[in-house]
Design brief:
This protein has 315 residues and is mostly beta strands. The chain is built from 4 helices and 19 strands.
Length: 315
């Protein structure tokens, strides 16, 4: 079975590319390449790019998922729901199979994109607790500035049927529900967190956050940073630069991530997170009623969309 390893990148268009780049730079992304009217942005990790930006209406254009080797692309290309293997005529190269999920989202399954030398990234702050002392003869003084991010961690999507969507990603890419929230009578999934299920590998609590809605719509994209101080320091830096906060900081209950959400100039949600739960493929999923869990263990609570479904409103 083909098994996705991680999120590779996201694709967006924006009516004002320079304004978008100003926000994304303050958020912590750096330009990796500009070619054929597209800008490729990276984080501090080794990925050539994690965000692709083009000129156009403010739209979410799709995302990429990594697989381990070319044989995975070959297997997908033989699937009735797959497509031909394409050479990627973009900076970083690589190959892909382009899929459309049940709501029509463009999902690019990729392999072979070149890596680049990592950018400097400070070490996580050693934390002194009542049970373990790890910081001696030094202080906590991380510099304030754009948040240093290691990788793109997950994508949030509004879908019309979580059950149908999770089945599709499970059958084609071995992705596994971790936690789901059930509502209504009969019960249906209003929220589901879906992780990669690569054998023998611990994966983040989720690579996809799925929210049930009346129509498909982009939810958010999240980038992993190193620690508590990076999440909170990034919050203050973005606030000082005049950008619009959306939700946070806080700690999620499902997934345990420290989180902080911001809006780009067109109201699209981007998230800094740190300290995610990790699971093996064999770890069982969990289901909760709406009164059994909260959007934040501490920090501000989110509200659902007016129809009782979907992610927190952007405004």
């Amino acid at each position: 079975m083909v098994a996705a390893r991680d999120v590779a990148y996201v694709r967006f268009s924006a009516p004002d590319v320079e304004e978008a780049l100003q926000f994304l730079g303050d958020f912590g992304l750096a330009v990796s390449a500009r070619e054929n009217g597209q800008t490729y942005l990276r984080v501090a990790g080794e990925a050539h790019h994690t965000y692709v930006l083009s000129q156009g209406p403010p739209q979410f254009l799709g995302f990429g998922l990594k697989v381990a080797d070319r044989a995975d692309l070959e297997e997908l290309s033989r699937s009735p729901r797959g497509g031909e293997i394409e050479k990627m005529d973009e900076p970083g190269g690589g190959e892909r199979v382009v899929l459309r999920d049940p709501d029509g989202y463009r999902v690019e399954i990729v392999h072979g994109i070149e890596t680049v030398p990592p950018l400097p990234m400070r070490e996580p702050v050693p934390v002194n607790t009542t049970h373990e002392r790890r910081r001696f003869s030094t202080t906590v003084r991380p510099p304030l500035g754009p948040t240093e991010m290691k990788r793109v961690g997950h994508v949030g999507l509004v879908v019309t049927s979580i059950e149908r969507t999770t089945e599709w990603y499970g059958e084609l890419l071995a992705m596994i529900p971790t936690d789901s929230v059930l509502v209504g009578e009969p019960k249906h999934k209003a929220v589901s967190f879906v992780r990669c299920g690569y054998p023998g590998v611990y994966s983040d609590h989720h690579a996809l956050a799925l929210f049930r809605g009346q129509r498909a719509n982009f939810g958010h994209v999240a980038f992993e940073t190193q620690d508590f101080d990076a999440v909170f320091g990034g919050h203050d830096y973005l606030a000082d630069r005049g950008w619009r906060p959306a939700w946070g900081p806080g700690r999620h209950e499902l997934g345990s991530q420290l989180f902080d959400y911001w809006m780009d100039p067109w109201g699209r949600l981007v998230e800094h997170f740190a300290d995610s739960d990790l699971f093996l493929p064999e770890d069982p999923p969990s289901e909760y009623g709406p009164d059994q869990t909260r959007s934040a263990w501490w920090g501000p609570q989110a509200t659902m969309s007016p129809d009782g479904s979907g992610p927190p409103p952007a405004h």
